[in-house]
Design goal:
The protein has 370 residues and is α/β, with parallel strands linked by helices. It contains eleven helices and 13 strands. The strands form two sheets. The chain has a seven-stranded mixed sheet with strand order 2-1-3-4-5-6-13.
Length: 370
């Protein structure tokens, strides 16, 4: 169906304030364009001011006050990751007071739903922006529309011997933030890479710092430190290649949601390196890491797990994979499903799988007109 444009300049305006999230929106823009919708992308305040337009729907990858420039549009916030820890501070706790400004919130997993509801209640209680309580808030399962291959049934079978070819290990630490815990890369990245270089049989090692951290001093120091290690390669690209989700034989991370995306894409267990102290602070995360991956508390445990996975695939069984896929909304985290939801938003329809939170649930009093 070709969408007709009337009083709107574009159907969908994408606000991409962080270009490293472009792989979240490119499949959506392509799918919407194929359906005949008009789309436009802006990246900052100057883009909005120099290229004014009236969009039907505004889609953002990150919270931004720029949505206030489009009061007549339906506003959409995509998820930041396929997984969100219950201990991650809410946007308001991180000093972002525009979370309530959206009408629709895509949640790529049941864990993201939990965090989003908590964040909405936190903002509803303590935000200074009470004017955003004009419409209910709608949570939509899915929205993680990156292209990554899901495993065939035969690939989810029990442990199988690995063929005698050189394997690859991806080390993908989480983002550094003083408000978050679990990030080990700035203190222990050299130790992890040194350990991975020493394991036998030798493996190719890909280190992908979080895109936000690429310019930090400690990343540059690590790159120089391992310049003479030909098996180590640093991936500093803005967005990861889709193959990064399923090509590595082993994934090592700290508390990054990438580990769960890798498990969904391959059926293999990632390794989470989390100290005992941090695991105690984040008990639910630690439980999920044990359920769908392997949890190492120190370098000694990490070495044992890496050696074992180099010699034999460490796969989820069918029941474990089905449980993970259900929790990560695998059927909804596709470009096709997300485009269908965006089309419904543009058309003013409410789908049965959406969760609409009435204003009363959020403790919001009706706005009184002057």
């Amino acid at each position: 169906m070709i969408k007709e444009v009337n009083e709107y300049d574009v159907d969908f305006l994408f606000i991409l304030i962080r270009p490293e999230f472009s792989d979240y929106v490119e499949p959506l823009i392509s799918g919407l364009n194929d359906c005949g919708f008009l789309t436009k992308t802006v990246y900052n305040v100057s883009d909005v001011e120099s290229n004014p337009c009236i969009p039907r729907v505004v889609v953002c990858t990150n919270e931004t006050p720029l949505i206030a420039a489009f009061p007549s549009a339906r506003t959409v916030l995509l998820g930041h990751s396929i997984y969100m820890r219950d201990t991650v501070p809410t946007p308001l706790q991180q000093g972002v007071d525009c979370f309530l400004g959206y009408d629709f919130y895509f949640c790529p997993s049941v864990y993201y739903v939990q965090w989003t509801i908590l964040s909405l209640l936190d903002s509803a209680t303590f935000s200074s922006q009470t004017s955003v309580f004009s419409t209910p808030k709608t949570l939509i399962p899915g929205g993680y529309a990156k292209e990554f291959r899901r495993p065939e049934k035969s690939e989810q079978s029990s442990a199988q011997p690995i063929a005698p070819v050189q394997k690859s290990i991806l080390y993908a630490p989480s983002v550094f933030s003083p408000d978050h815990t679990g990030h080990l890369f700035h203190e222990h990245g050299a130790g992890v890479l040194g350990l991975l270089c020493a394991v036998r049989p030798a493996a190719q090692i890909i280190c992908r710092p979080h895109p936000t951290d690429r310019g930090r001093d400690y990343v540059n120091i690590l790159i120089q430190s391992f310049a003479n290690h030909p098996q180590v390669r640093f991936d500093l690209s803005d967005t990861p290649s889709g193959t990064l989700y399923h090509v590595p034989d082993i994934v090592v991370t700290d508390m990054s949601g990438f580990g769960f995306a890798f498990a969904l894409a391959t059926g293999l267990r990632p390794i989470f390196l989390v100290s005992r102290i941090e695991a105690e602070k984040h008990r639910r995360f630690a439980e999920l890491a044990r359920r769908f991956g392997r949890l190492a508390h120190d370098f000694g445990e990490l070495l044992v797990l890496v050696r074992a996975q180099l010699n034999q695939h460490d796969s989820l069984n069918a029941a474990e994979y089905t449980s993970l896929a259900a929790a990560l909304y695998s059927d909804r985290n596709t470009p096709e499903a997300t485009v269908a939801d965006l089309r419904a938003i543009a058309d003013g329809r409410t789908e049965q799988h959406w969760l609409v939170l009435p204003l009363a649930i959020l403790g919001a009093a009706p706005l009184i007109e002057d």
